[in-house]
Write a structure and sequence with these properties.
five-stranded parallel β-sheet, single chain, alpha/beta, flat, Rossmann fold, Helicase, Ruva Protein, domain 3, cytoplasm, 20 helices, two-component regulatory system
């Protein structure tokens, strides 16, 4: 068996700086690399002894230009199982569709951090994950940034939305915790759009995309000459967002010294640029996101207790997709409607069998991974509706009708009428499921839910109370 440290990555790129950055990150993660600058050299390398050891390819679209799909198809013909990640400055979904049909496993829009490139490479080559089916595609389709676009009726998810909607109307700091891909950034944008600061400045910074040396300057700014390479004054994000909102993703990636400095800024409401002897009064709201539980990091001494206390006055826990399997049907249809709007794609339905298969999977990449899988299936299907056959590698990972998975399949496909013992479920349980399904389908618009169910709004709210159903309307 090939050892992890022997994995070889070919980088096809004329940009030496970009190629070196990706190669350095790959080396840190146990990869060896070979770099080529043109299509001819790439094809030639595939036929060499070294080329036969390749585990993945990173291709910058600027190398073959308009012939990128031809190059991808040629490489896939020679090495069908080799994952190919395409880097491009073109944001057109049509190029993505054409590249994926040619054989690309993923595409990433530049500028992109080397860490993100390697995340895609690792996802496409990870053992135990089906290649070319569950590769973690980045979010190419821009979603609306409001609460109406947050799809789901699962109680834990609706509770998270309720807390977020209430917090959005205030000015306090908020900590949003949840696994990668659960929709934290989308929730941040919805909160910003619904806040009193909606018309103020807004910036979202992913700390994971910044080097340790650049973080302080990006947040606090710097004076000319503050450090080597500081040739001009720079205003930091905290000052630029005065009167508005600064969203910080991967807040746990801040160095401890930066955490303490940020806590001081929050306490004093004054930011001092690096190298400056003066400061600026600011009124900047901070929305922080984290993939892990910050409380545990505080207890381990890895995160500032002062900063945690300031950020967690309101804490929102976004549940993983595996805990809201009943939302998969509504999410899938929502994503397919978005995908249909992209050039080169069309409106597709999805069968109950396909929904049941999707509901039986655990989704380690959460909602983002579901969107990626649907995007890929929509690219390659020839039918008018996605069926379970459009997810062949996913099918190989799911054992149908096994324990709770079977129950999740039935729930997600619609409303389950029968219990596992073969008897009909109580009417109260079925009614509760129908109401939850309607809330998710109509995105929490309770007037529409009541109208479609043929009952009055007051009757609906009485049933919500009687059945113990939470909502965020």
């Amino acid at each position: 068996m090939e050892h992890e440290d022997s994995r070889l990555l070919m980088i096809i790129d004329r940009d030496c700086n970009q190629a070196q950055s990706v190669a350095k990150q790959a080396s840190r993660e146990g990869w060896r690399t070979v770099c080529v600058e043109d299509a001819e050299s790439a094809i030639a390398t595939l036929g060499t002894q070294e080329g036969m050891q390749l585990s993945a390819i990173v291709l910058d679209q600027s190398v073959p230009g308009d012939d990128v799909c031809e190059l991808i198809a040629e490489m896939k013909t020679r090495r069908p199982a080799l994952p190919i990640m395409m880097l491009t400055a073109n944001t057109s979904p049509l190029l993505a569709v054409e590249a994926m049909r040619a054989g690309a496993s993923d595409y990433l829009v530049k500028p992109v951090a080397p860490e993100k490139v390697m995340q895609a490479v690792n996802g496409a080559t990870r053992r135990g994950s089906p290649q070319n089916e569950l590769a973690p595609l980045t979010e190419k389709i821009k979603a609306r940034g409001d609460f109406d676009s947050m799809i789901g009726a699962a109680p834990a998810f609706r509770n998270a939305l309720a807390v977020a909607a209430k917090a959005a109307r205030g000015h306090g700091y908020v900590l949003i915790e949840g696994e990668n891909g659960t929709g934290k950034e989308m929730l941040v944008r919805a909160m910003q759009a619904a806040s009193p600061r909606a018309k103020g400045p807004f910036k979202l910074i992913d700390v994971a995309d910044l080097s340790a040396s650049a973080i302080d300057s990006a947040l606090f700014g710097h004076e000319k000459g503050a450090f080597a390479g500081a040739f001009d004054n720079q205003t930091g994000a905290l000052q630029n967002c005065d009167g508005g909102t600064l969203a910080l993703d991967s807040i746990d990636r801040l160095p401890l010294a930066t955490q303490e400095r940020l806590a001081e800024v929050i306490e004093s409401k004054t930011v001092r640029p690096l190298g400056a002897t003066y400061g600026f009064r600011i009124d900047t709201r901070i929305l922080a996101c984290c993939d892990s539980k910050l409380e545990g990091l505080v207890e381990a001494g890895l995160f500032s207790e002062a900063l945690y206390g300031q950020l967690s006055a309101t804490r929102i826990d976004v549940p993983p997709l595996r805990e809201r399997a009943t939302d998969i049907a509504a999410l899938s249809r929502h994503f397919l409607a978005q995908i249909a709007e992209q050039p080169g794609l069309r409106q597709l339905g999805i069968t109950d069998g396909a929904i049941a298969l999707l509901a039986a999977f655990d989704w380690p990449g959460n909602v983002r991974q579901l969107q990626a899988v649907l995007f890929r299936a929509a690219v390659f299907t020839e039918g008018d509706a996605l069926t379970s056959e459009d997810f062949p590698q996913l099918s190989s990972m799911v054992v149908p009708d096994r324990g709770s998975s079977g129950s999740r399949q039935s729930e997600s496909a619609g409303v389950m009428l029968y219990a596992e013992d073969g008897n009909l479920r109580p009417l109260e349980e079925i009614e509760a499921d129908v109401i939850r399904l309607a809330i998710g389908h109509y995105r929490g618009r309770m007037t529409e839910v009541a109208r479609r169910l043929g009952i009055g709004r007051s009757t609906l709210y009485r049933k919500l109370s009687d059945l113990g159903i939470d909502n965020a309307a």
